[in-house]
């Protein structure tokens, strides 16, 4: 079954005057792993923004988890976002909070007990190899470690879809490998659908995957 489906999707900025993606059609199923590549400025980040509802389609439909983002109301969009794990290139951590507290932010928002939060913080930080850094603050960590915190946070609620924009962009090999491993595991073991914008598909990647290219306003699948 489709988790994401786009029909005649057009995305634009400047009140619709500046079209970035035009008439795109694609569908993505549960457990699919999709790499998105394309020239700089082609619209990769724009597509991710549309998928988490930061920009609204100009034309066509974009359905994520049964919700059409072309017509969704604010409250429904908020609910949808609780099922998305979003990983940003610039981490977007809260620097005044400990690493552990950053990781369980989605669980706090969902109203889980402190006990559950503590247990999950420990489990998640173990997965990203940061167990010993739980009580540190983000700025005491390297860039790679901060991004692993971001990945742990994205996985905290076992999201239906992970959306990642250049997650390993400027990271060291160790952190990059930890992150690719976690995404592979989530996809394989939990059937999480994963979309990753990257400039380079990792050679260590061991799962079957799909490859979309964004170019000249189109979204094309490479076979
Ligand atoms: P990519 O991620 O492939 O590098 P982007 O999706 O970031 O590309 O950008 C696609 C195009 O949209 C670029 O020409 C960029 O300058 C433009 N763009 C991005 N954000 C905005 C915005 N908020 N307003 C107007 N144009 C934008
Ligand atoms: P351990 O805590 O000893 O790593 P688990 O039973 O918790 O063992 O996990 C088994 C496997 O499942 C590990 O490879 C782990 O990376 C993976 N895993 C568990 N939970 C998640 C998650 N939320 N996201 C991604 N991978 C996970």
Automatic annotation (TrEMBL):
A Pfam family hit: ABC_tran
Residues covered by the ABC transporter domain: 4-222
Give UniProt keywords alphabetically.
Answer: ATP-binding, Nucleotide-binding, Transport
List, alphabetically, the InterPro entries matched.
AAA+_ATPase, ABC_transporter-like_ATP-bd, ABC_transporter-like_CS, ABC_transpr_LolD-like, MacB-like_ATP-bd, P-loop_NTPase
Q: Which SUPFAM superfamilies match?
A: P-loop containing nucleoside triphosphate hydrolases
Q: Which PROSITE patterns match?
A: ABC_TRANSPORTER_1, ABC_TRANSPORTER_2
Could you say which protein family the record assigns here? Answer: Belongs to the ABC transporter superfamily.
Which PANTHER family does UniProt cross-reference here?
ABC TRANSPORTER ABCH.1, IMPORT ATP-BINDING PROTEIN
Instruction: Name the chain's protein.
Output: Cell division ATP-binding protein FtsE
Q: Which organism is it from?
A: Sulfurovum indicum
Taxonomic path: Bacteria, Pseudomonadati, Campylobacterota, Epsilonproteobacteria, Campylobacterales
